[in-house]
Amino acid sequence: MSDEIALFIDFENIRYSLINVQHREPDPQELIGVARQFGTVMVARAYADWQRQPDFFKGSLTAAMIVFALGGLVWAPFTPVAYSFLQSGLAPDEQQQVVTLWTTGAMVAAPLGLLIGGPLIELAGTSGGLVLSGWLTLLLVPIAAFAVLRPTCPA
């Protein structure tokens, strides 16, 4: 089991170091990516005097994190709920084949998602990418609600 970690970033000092040593702005997603090497990031917070930071690190990042967190609330129960619905609609002898197909599909979809997601994030930027990802995830709510609340046909 991987360790759960919290990431607390002294953003002003990291930004100062990156600008002076590597001549670039910090990428919050890159910082989180490095932290993921040590475990699952459960909390990520950046601390700074945000009034002194460039505009592209203000406001939109807060909105992005809020939307992304809401999206996480949608995704968190997705797998157990999906498997429960899947199992409830299948005969016991069909479940293994369908779950195997589902898992295979997910394994194929993940790299395709990265292939498509990379250029989208490049175009949208870090904050825009988080907002886009959060909104796309929130779009699953009405789809899931429809699947759960639709009337079933009697057999």
Biggest sheet record: 2 strands, parallel
Domain count: 2
| Approximate strand percentage | 5-15%
Contiguous low-pLDDT stretches (5 residues minimum) are none
Per DSSP E runs of 2 or more residues, the count of β-strands stands at: 2
Shape: elongated
Pattern of helices and strands:
EHHEHHHH
Number of helices: 6
**Radius of gyration, in angstroms, nearest whole number:** 20 Å
Condensed summary:
The protein is mainly alpha-helical and 155 residues long. The protein is built from 6 helices and 2 strands; from the N terminus they run βααβαααα.
Structure description:
The chain has 155 residues and is mostly helical. It has 2 domains: 58 residues, no CATH class; 85 residues, no CATH class. The chain has 6 helices and 2 strands. A two-stranded parallel ribbon has the order 1-2.
Key descriptive features of the protein:
155 residues; mainly alpha
Chain-wise SSE layout:
Elements (H helix, E strand, L loop, with lengths): L3 E7 H12 L5 H9 L3 E8 L12 H16 L2 H11 L3 H47 L1 H10 L6
Helix pairs in contact: 3-5
